[in-house]
């Protein structure tokens, strides 16, 4: 026998109650949905489009870097440099981008002279293209990439320091070779180094690019590079140049800040003249620098604006090599 | 004559309708309130406990800084330095902390020699205490403070550059005088400069403090400083020293990172010997450095741990004064 609870309203009242309840529930769901859309999304510290790390990723992938070195017609220099770079602190792996089409890699010789401190992977290419080095290699396990030209030697001290700097500026290209663009009254940009006039923002010079042929950058940018407009690839392929300028455009667009952080190297050497091959590198071509100015202007068209920003920050290592290298006569 | 609309339910139905509507509204408000609490709070770029800026704050308060200079018994140097600092780019105002108790400030003379580029405020103190300069002055309108000792001249070029660096590292003390602490096997810390052994983290030296007697820092830290344990004030008052070490502890605790960023000065001068007063500054006291080691250990006790962190980043200005100051023989 039920008393109060059973004193249900009439059937008509029951239907009205049901209807009101449904309306209430629907309205609540709509409001909740609308407000939920305003909740903050979980911040991911990776770059957009970067692959999510597996939870089992080892510590080493966070505290070490992968050297990517593209090589063409200078295998003697390559091997000399591999002996140097294989032992750099915090190096995880070396990826050699083998642009010597049809030629065997030195992998056999490499193995016969083992053991080695780190694994070296030879990526055989099918076409000799400068942008081969900017592929998103599946062999990459680290967040950081160190990209080096196959004729450049940077001391372990410089690299260890620059890597620690990159860890503090992971969204920037942290490297040893600064360059800049300048505006001209005609609106046409020109590319150069410090021999060009200063951009005119206060005292001193500024740089707006750090070249990737001797620099650390986040591996996520290789992934981003695969998503660029076709015209970028066409430009790089046409000139066999400017992949580094394109990367600086990409990074500057991504961060809204200067793309690079310049670390002043203590010991950086160009081994070009030491090669037996007689091959002397793309930058000796007559049109090399003109091409780079051309690329800057083309990229501004492609990206519909100039994303590069200037910086005048120059980083050196406190107390090294000279423990009193910051001393003031106060 | 109304037809459908007037066919109101009975009085009882009307009350039920009203009741349901009220319930719906109340539930919706509760849900909305709950979800709104989950919405992201507007990110304030000020430090916690910093006062909220009035909406009418001018652009200048963001792009300029306030010079705070404490002075005792060196009014000749003060006036010389005021002539220099009053014209530094991006200076908003000068606050002179007048520790000459009972003595008239040079305000009359200052005014008679006007006009001046910026306002100067003389804050007359009642007790000659070193931590007077760390008050949260209501005259402060800028986010940035430049704190200078009254015997230190830093060139306008250095200051303009360091200010631009501070704007990129606003939570750090950006300045010209690096110092460090070192651990010893006994667990007792010692304080010093680069003549002390390197802390032993890789190559070269490290610094863990940047002294505030020639540095930029966020004005919010002055507010934070008012919230420190009483023992900190007692320590500073007892030693008439270490206010800068205490500030570095505060900043390091706040950020969890190295407190300072060292900018290598091109032109920094100590004018001590130039004073007519014969007064030569606290750091000449025999016990000065021993006091500072003592302060480091006391502060570790007070804060229950060592928050200072090491850095080896040394920042210089690219292409200034020498436009080729980063040139490599590659």
Automatic annotation (TrEMBL), chains A, B:
GO terms for cellular component: endoplasmic reticulum membrane. One of its GO terms (molecular function) is glucuronyl-galactosyl-proteoglycan 4-alpha-N-acetylglucosaminyltransferase activity. Pfam families: Glyco_transf_64 (PF09258). Residues 65-320 form the Glycosyl transferase domain. Its main location: endoplasmic reticulum. The keyword Transmembrane helix applies. It catalyses: 3-O-(beta-D-GlcA-(1->3)-beta-D-Gal-(1->3)-beta-D-Gal-(1->4)-beta-D-Xyl)-L-seryl-[protein] + UDP-N-acetyl-alpha-D-glucosamine = 3-O-(alpha-D-GlcNAc-(1->4)-beta-D-GlcA-(1->3)-beta-D-Gal-(1->3)-beta-D-Gal-(1->4)-beta-D-Xyl)-L-seryl-[protein] + UDP + H(+). Glycosyltransferase required for the biosynthesis of heparan-sulfate and responsible for the alternating addition of beta-1-4-linked glucuronic acid (GlcA) and alpha-1-4-linked N-acetylglucosamine (GlcNAc) units to nascent heparan sulfate chains. Belongs to the glycosyltransferase 47 family. GO terms for biological process: N-acetylglucosamine metabolic process; UDP-N-acetylgalactosamine metabolic process. Keywords: Disulfide bond, Glycoprotein, Glycosyltransferase, Manganese, Membrane, Metal-binding, Signal-anchor, Transferase, Transmembrane, Transmembrane helix. It comes from Prunella fulvescens (Brown accentor). The chain crosses the membrane at residues 20-42. Its EC number is 2.4.1.223. It comes from the Eukaryota. It is a single-pass type II membrane protein. Its cofactor is Mn(2+). The keyword Hydrolase does not apply. This is Exostosin-like 2. InterPro entries: Glycosyltrans_GT2/GT47, GT64_dom, Nucleotide-diphossugar_trans.
